[in-house]
Amino acid sequence: MSKKDYYEILGIEKTADKKDVKKAYRKLARKHHPDANRENKKEAEERFKEISEAYEILADEEKRKRYDQFGHEGVNFGSGGFSWDQFTKAGDVSDIFEQMFQGGGLGDVFSQFFGGGRRRQQNNRGNDLRYDMSISLEEAYQGLEKEITVPRKDNCSDCDGSGASEGGTLEHCSQCEGQGMVREVHRRGFMQSITTNVCNRCGGTGKVIDKPCSKCNGNGVKDNRRKINVDIPAGVEDGQHLRLRSQGDSGSRGGPKGDLFVVINVNEDKRFERQGSEIGYRLKISPVDAVLGKAINVPTISGEVKLNIPPGTQPNTILRMKGRGMPVIGRNDTFGDQHVEIEIDISKASGKKKQVWEELRKIEEQESESFISKAKRKLRGE
Ligand SMILES: [Zn+2]
Ligand SMILES: [Zn+2]
């Protein structure tokens, strides 16, 4: 089966610019997100994958150029393509750390023990990076694009990331015999333990350079501060993270790039209580308004909205303001509700107000008296 044209999938012209690509993608991604299409999830998933794949290629200048020139052949898809793990619940933050370990420290040691053939490749993969971003509830409501500055290691411009100066050559590292790792055997009495460390001569790559680049000392990477635009979708929740592939550290000497994880922290809002896309709000009203009913302006995350309090509203009644909650992530124009819990503000009365309340009491007493006398008459059979 031949693959569909990426431009066709996103429904855009070949001349579309970066903004158009993004716009088309966001629109389609929301519409076809599997969570928004529970009835035919399978189909939606397929479609969503298609859209994401098309976007991954067309949003990347270099990949797009290759695709325009060579078609699908030109853009080789590894297993590391786009995936909908961009947004994960707070509980899954641990998986970020797992990923991080793969980038450096522990992963290397373990793969050595378990005979990982991919070891050398992993040794010089760049680190995954974490960036914590705090946003307000309003920003989470609207979604935002934010430029962040990430300190990271980028390829050295002098040697193009190779670490070798012009005319330099790569040689087998003699310290680790090209393994990238060195084993150390420790003995204490009859106990023997073995530790495995990244070779410090070649930095785990297994190769050394006879004439290292003077600018990066042969590492191939240099400290840099990179500005990156992050697109945070409306409805994002506290603790969710965005994974930006290949925006982490560059690997030493041309090694693969790590990923950047942007962890979102949504600040608490004094007025509103949030639970996913639902919002809770406490509204204090006077006993008069509770008895007589009233249309009252109530704050919502999107501004003040009139809420109708029906006559005779009891304390702790919960009134629902439909669609006044937070947007549901990835779903086109779907919003949660705002739930308004009614509190009745009972306080001492004085002056004229007190007189009116006393009037009220007299009326109630008369009513109850007449009720009793009615009952008495009934008993007497009148
Ligand atoms: Zn260099
Ligand atoms: Zn070595």
List the helices and strands and how they pair.
Layout: H1 6-10, H2 18-32, H3 41-58, H4 61-70, H5 93-103, H6 105-113, H7 119-123, E1 129-135, H8 137-142, E2 144-155, E3 170-172, E4 181-188, E5 191-198, E6 207-209, E7 221-232, E8 241-244, E9 260-266, E10 273-275, E11 278-285, H9 287-292, E12 294-300, E13 303-309, E14 318-321, E15 338-344, H10 351-379
Parallel strand pairs: 1-9, 11-15
Antiparallel strand pairs: 2-7, 3-6, 4-5, 8-9, 10-11, 12-13, 14-15
Helix pairs in contact: 2-3
Bound molecules: zinc ion (2 copies).
One zinc ion (ZN) is lined by residues 156, 158-159, 163, 213, 215-216, 220.
CATH topology of the largest domain, what is it called?
HSP40/DNAj peptide-binding domain
Bound molecules: zinc ion
What strand order characterises the main sheet?
Answer: 10-11-15-14
Count of alpha/pi helices: 10
Tell me about the largest β-sheet. 4 strands, mixed
Give the averaged pLDDT, no decimals: 82
Shape, please? elongated
Count of distinct strands: 15
Rounded to the nearest angstrom, the distance between the terminal CA atoms is 94 Å
Series of H and E elements: HHHHHHHEHEEEEEEEEEEHEEEEH
- The CATH homologous superfamily of the largest domain is termed Urease metallochaperone UreE, N-terminal domain
Helix content: 25-40%
Which residue ranges are poorly predicted, with pLDDT under 50 across at least 5 consecutive positions?
77-122
Structural class by secondary-structure content: alpha+beta
